[in-house]
Specification:
Cytochrome Bc1 Complex, Chain D, domain 2; 309 residues; binds heme C; mainly alpha
Length: 309
């Protein structure tokens, strides 16, 4: 964990003490740990080489640079970044953690067809998408040193893995559909109980001396409406396995869906593919029950992007 974050956490009251309301303590807490990990995912995840194994040569320099970009894109790939997130915010442990879309789970699976853009994507093109949507920035051109370094890091981390076979722990958890349709009010209750402590009551995260200690979940500094995390199923799978930070797999599946819905029912920067109208942009790119783009929630039509706060 980053030193700034440890400092911040040390200043907070203990998690367990302050995120339970009196009513929750009185009522029996029915939290079931992950019953949703599939047989393949339960298999032992791949162990990437330790950081200390990065070779001390010209190739190793690119690997190390790729890691730096991954951790602090706003510093090392500034020209392509439009928010205060880092790759590591969503791909935990420097892109190593199973079930948080680790780089070693992705690299051996490309080139791959993506329904998002209807053609076969190289790994570099997949990386471009992260900058355009998750980082709300601009895609570095193919061959750009930023992409070369990131690809070197992912390739190095995948050493020894078979090509083309989805490794256990790749991607995010795929949760089964919830029993009850995801709900804003229930999600808000969970957010206040389990998330606001770090991500802020307004979801804007925490900055210390201009440095993001806890990332924003919505608003102008977060991922945009074209990002994968905007889809409730992706967000629910990420949250179930990884949040609250350090307490992954403690939320019920229903809680994960509800809080993912709540998070994704807030404004964020416009989808860069916006074609002039929210409804036609929804029809072109968001025609799924997993996206709230273009839906009306609490009287607000989502997808306006620019109207913030
Ligand atoms: C806001 C969260 C978020 C941030 C920030 C983010 N990503 Fe991602 N990333 C995702 C999600 C969600 C997916 C999966 C999307 C999907 O499956 O449709 C993904 C997918 C990927 C994949 C493909 C994974 C696979 O298994 O196929 C790679 C590689 C990747 N991201 C790299 C990056 C890099 C590099 C950065 C920083 C420049 C970055 N991401 C920033 C959320 C994020
Ligand atoms: C103890 C502090 C803490 C708590 C509590 C917590 N998070 Fe996080 N969250 C983090 C940190 C730190 C990161 C970035 C992880 C990293 O960079 O290693 C993160 C990342 C995220 C991300 C991806 C990055 C982004 O900004 O979109 C999402 C989504 C998220 N958290 C949602 C939640 C939800 C929902 C809850 C409540 C169920 C929650 N978190 C509770 C600390 C916390």
């Amino acid at each position: 964990m980053k030193p700034a974050r440890l400092l911040w956490l040390a200043l907070l009251p203990p998690l367990a003490a302050c995120n339970r309301s009196a009513s929750q303590v009185a009522a029996p807490i029915t939290r079931t740990p992950a019953a949703t990990v599939s047989a393949t995912d339960a298999a032992k995840p791949f162990r990437p080489p330790p950081e200390s194994a990065i070779p001390d040569d010209d190739f190793g320099k690119q690997v190390a640079l790729g890691r730096q970009i991954f951790m602090e894109p706003g510093r090392y790939a500034k020209a392509y970044v439009g928010n205060s997130l880092s790759c590591e915010n969503c791909h935990l442990d420097a892109g190593r953690l199973a079930h948080s879309a680790p780089l070693w789970g992705a690299y051996p699976m490309y080139p791959a067809y993506r329904s998002k853009n209807h053609h076969v994507n190289t790994f570099a093109e997949r990386l471009q998408g992260c900058f355009r949507y998750s980082m709300n920035g601009n895609a570095p051109p193919l061959g750009d040193p930023v992409l070369v370094a990131l690809e070197s890091y992912a390739y190095w981390m995948s050493k020894g893995e078979p090509v083309g076979a989805a490794p256990p722990g790749h991607g995010y958890l795929k949760l089964p559909k919830p029993r009850l349709a995801p709900d804003y009010a229930r999600g808000e209750t969970i957010f206040k109980r389990d998330c606001a402590l770090c991500h802020g009551g307004n979801g804007q995260g925490q900055q210390v001396a201009g440095h993001t200690v806890f990332p924003p979940l919505w608003g102008p500094q977060s991922f945009n409406w074209g990002a994968g995390m905007e889809q409730i199923n992706n967000a629910a799978g990420f949250i179930k396995a990884n949040m609250p930070l350090g307490q992954g797999n403690t939320l019920t599946d229903q809680d994960a869906w509800d809080v993912a819905y709540f998070m994704d029912a807030h404004e964020r920067p416009q989808d860069p593919r916006f074609n002039g109208s929210i409804s036609t942009t929804r029809a072109a790119y968001h025609d799924t029950s997993d996206s709230l783009y273009g839906s009306t929630v609490n009287g607000h039509v989502l997808g306006q992007g620019t109207t913030w706060p």
